Amino acid sequence: MNRPSIVVFAYSEPGYTCLKALIEAKANILAVYTHQDDPDEEIWFHSVYDLAKANNIPVFRPKKIDEEATNYILNLNPDIIFSFYFRRLIPNEIILKPRLGAYNLHGALLPKYRGQTCINWAVVNGETHTGATLHLMTEKADEGDIVDQRGFDIAFTDTSLDVFIKVSKIASEIIKDCLPKIEAGTITLTPQDDTQATKFGRRRPKDGLLDFSKDAISLYNLIRGVTHPFPGAFTYVNNKKLFIWWAKPIEGTGNIGEIVSTNPLCIGTGKGLLQLEKLQFENEAELDAKAFTDLLPIGTKFELE
């Protein structure tokens, strides 16, 4: 095959859709690197590993890109490297190797939302617009020149999963359209404006703690930003951890962090009320709010710990 050779690092749904776009374009893929699924993580996305296997592409799942993996990749001498939601650091000697460049797909409109878990952060922060960016990989993550980026709206009812699926779709379109120019070495790069950059770090399960002194819309954004398949937003009631998987902000007033009605089940916040709809005590079944009428009577106080 005379087309430029490619090594792909990919995981999650954007990784799957972008690899699928390369396969459908009959790209010359030498190898795919992905991850073992985490048994503690809810796996909602298609398998990059299975997709590569089904298309007879050599695929590897090392715990890290160590010296052995690095030497193997360097010996392949790829012309292009792509990283699509790969979760581990790719050594500089690898990303500097390909003559036609190394490119990363980021789930935001760079330079905004550099860093990890950018999709969840965008929803938690109540953003109404985001997108995907294909950019040149450099030593500093998410700071390379932009190849292409495309945006879309985030609906007020979108969860992070909804946005992940939108990112995955638009990312595959970017790869499909940009691949010929990357292979031909004719891409036009646009430097990022660092003065407009924002950066957010990882989100951990503990970051889902609800502070009811905040306004109802901010609390709602946190809930939809970390609801299934992510770890979830939570509070405490009588020293028991209570997950709130879905709720909606409504008008009204009430004592902060206190149940003010049971039909519907509502709690007071710093501004407005939060109507609770899907709840779950830790290690118990997830249920509709109606099942909690007797468990959370009026006056019940939610705690920070």
TrEMBL record:
Q: Which CDD domains match?
A: Arna_FMT_C (cd08702)
The protein's organism comes out as: Megamonas funiformis YIT 11815
> Can you give the residue ranges of the Formyl transferase N-terminal domain?
25-175
> Which NCBIfam families does this chain map to?
PRK06988.1
Q: Where is each Formyl transferase C-terminal domain found? A: 205-293
Which protein are we looking at?
Formyl transferase N-terminal domain-containing protein
Cited InterPro entries: Formyl_trans_C (IPR005793), Formyl_transf_N (IPR002376), Formyl_transf_N_sf (IPR036477), Formyl_transferase-like_C_sf (IPR011034)
Q: Which PANTHER family match?
A: METHIONYL-TRNA FORMYLTRANSFERASE, METHIONYL-TRNA FORMYLTRANSFERASE, MITOCHONDRIAL
